Amino acid sequence: MLSASDVTFYREQGYLVVPDVLDAPTLDEARGELRRIIDGARAVRAHTDVYDLEPGHRPDDPRVRRVKTPHKFFPVFQRLMRHPRLVAILRDLLGPAVRLHGSKINLKSPRYGSPVEWHQDWAFYPHTNDDLLAVGVMLDDCTSDNGPLLVVPGSHRGPTYDHHTGDPRAGGYFCGAIDPEVIRDEIARAVPLTGRAGSMSFHHVRLVHGSAQNVSRLPRTLLLYEYAAADAWPLMGIPNLSDFDARLVCGEPTIEPRIVPAPVRMPLPPALHQGSIYENQSDAARRYFPVSDAEAAPRT
User: Fold this and answer.
1) Does pTM top 0.85 for this prediction?
2) Residues 7-14: contacts with CB within 8 Å, 24+ apart?
């Protein structure tokens, strides 16, 4: 799937967009399953193990901003995490043995899809080495107007920024967001990851990124899979080994973590508002992306 220059670009810049990874039947199947999932949100009124809801959600007008861990609940997305063309790319970028770390579907509906503040995934789940990445499977066309992922090229080779509310030594809590004043110059260099539906983006776990509110009339749905080299082990506790090994998408398991020096900040003390990144970031002292009050406010 990838050329040598593609791999070099990813190593240097920390991201890559690969067009048309999914064929039309696979894309249609994923979209159809997602429509059924969203329709199921009519039965809920608050966040659940599956749904993270937008402000203003109503059972008769469901608004979902995230589907949590879809690979655990829906066979279509469990199969897709091992799609052969995707696994081929992962081998090129992470090596012969790769494990799924997690999954989610972020939805930005027209005119009100919630933004995600600037952050690094590494701040949420540091490992013994940083051979980890996130895959953005574009279930809709991603344009410059409908809230695409924004990334700062090369930032994966820089520091791990503070994602806390103030100095942790003074009682600050993890909030999953970087103070935008600290990275003003980095934000100025950000580029959007756009592409046709069926394309995929890949970004390094330490790459600074975020996304704005969807201000267009087009939806933007991004299925996100997070993958790790099999010898990258989480620093925040060892999971159930059987489950850990069951998430391998290629290669063999290992009980010998590869330990490589990397700048780490632990996500402790834990966020005051647990749940998705949207809940974590609700405590951020300063925000970068504007939110339209009219569209974000609960409706009556």
Assistant:
1) yes
2) 7/92, 7/93, 10/93, 10/202, 10/204, 12/154, 13/153, 13/154, 14/151, 14/153, 14/154, 14/155, 14/156, 14/157, 14/203, 14/204, 14/206, 14/207
